[in-house]
Design goal:
The structure is a single chain. The chain is mostly helical. It contains 12 helices and no strands. The protein has one domain: MetI-like fold (Orthogonal Bundle). The longest helix has 37 residues.
């Protein structure tokens, strides 16, 4: 039997193909299109991305303008009017404008910080789960040390060591996510290593690298993708936590949903909409990423394919 035939047999046993010429990801995309949860989640995520990209076209005002500071004091904050449909924020900026531009800022922070955590964590998890042996022992003991530190405390420690900046904030949040991704991917790959298709591939003489990269890794990505989508939402919440502790940067009036929640909390008694609007935006965006991520996990899981 040729190597191409051996690979095809191992892939078929893994459940990677549902028909001739159909890859794992093609089959997953086909199942996603039939899943109502995936459609709703994708719509919310797409709307979030469109608002972030086309923010300058959706509002006539500039973000962080603070030209209406006289309408936001310690005892009074102007509510919705014809000129400002959602009122004024705590710094005298148009609330709707801040929310729209906040989508862009939140997307940048969420994507970059999650990308940092995912890339480093997945690399460590791939080495540990794919190579095993002393690689696994050394890497996972390092990951265990990081896991013993609460993620927020780890982010605070990193943020305190880095000069206050947006990139430093994203790096702190991303590094706090590394042990989660590393342990999750390593556990999934260890479970895949005991599957029948791996045994079949070894019996057919496939190289370990081929088995790990072409078969074990794609079938182990489901839980990692779900966690990544969840972290895209929680990254915004962690920014709010770091901002609350004074580590969110030197510009508290920057349009970012997490910071808006923190700054609005101080005036919740006179203007409850200040933390409410960005909180709703965070919740809806988190719901979209969660629905899409859970649907992707189901579509990529060999045990749940139909």
């Amino acid at each position: 039997m040729s190597r191409h035939e051996a690979t095809a047999v191992a892939t078929t046993i893994a459940g990677g193909d549902e028909g001739p010429g159909e890859s794992l990801w093609q089959g997953a995309f086909k199942r996603l299109r039939r899943n109502p949860m995936a459609i709703v989640g994708a719509f919310i995520v797409a709307l979030f991305i469109l608002v972030a990209v086309f923010a300058p076209l959706l509002t006539p005002y500039e973000p962080e303008s603070r030209e209406w500071t006289n309408l936001s004091t310690n005892i009074y904050v102007q509510g919705p009017t014809g000129e400002h449909p959602l009122g004024i924020d705590a710094f005298g900026s148009d609330m709707l404008t801040q929310l729209i531009y906040g989508a862009r800022q939140s997307m940048i922070i969420g994507v970059v910080s999650t990308g940092i955590g995912l890339s480093i964590g997945a690399f460590l998890g791939l080495l540990a789960g794919g190579l095993g042996g002393w690689f696994d022992t050394i890497i996972m003991r390092f990951v265990d040390v990081l896991l013993s530190i609460p993620s927020l405390l780890l982010a605070v420690s990193v943020a305190a060591l880095i000069a206050e900046s947006q990139f430093g904030l994203m790096l702190a949040i991303g590094l706090a996510q590394v042990p989660i991704f590393a342990r999750l991917l390593r556990g999934s790959m260890m479970a895949q290593s005991r599957s029948d298709y791996v045994l079949a591939g070894r019996a057919l003489g496939l190289k370990r690298r081929t088995l790990v990269l072409n078969h074990m890794l794609p079938n182990s990505l489901g839980p990692t993708i779900v966690q990544a989508t969840l972290n895209l939402a929680t990254a915004t919440i962690e920014v709010a936590a770091l901002s609350f502790l004074g580590l969110g940067g030197d510009k508290p009036y920057v349009a970012e949903w997490g910071r808006m929640v923190v700054e609005g909390e101080g005036k919740i008694t006179i203007a409850p909409w200040l933390p409410f609007y960005p909180g709703v935006c965070i919740a809806i965006t988190a719901l979209g990423f969660t629905l899409l991520g859970e649907s992707m996990r189901t579509a990529l899981d060999p045990k749940q394919r139909r």
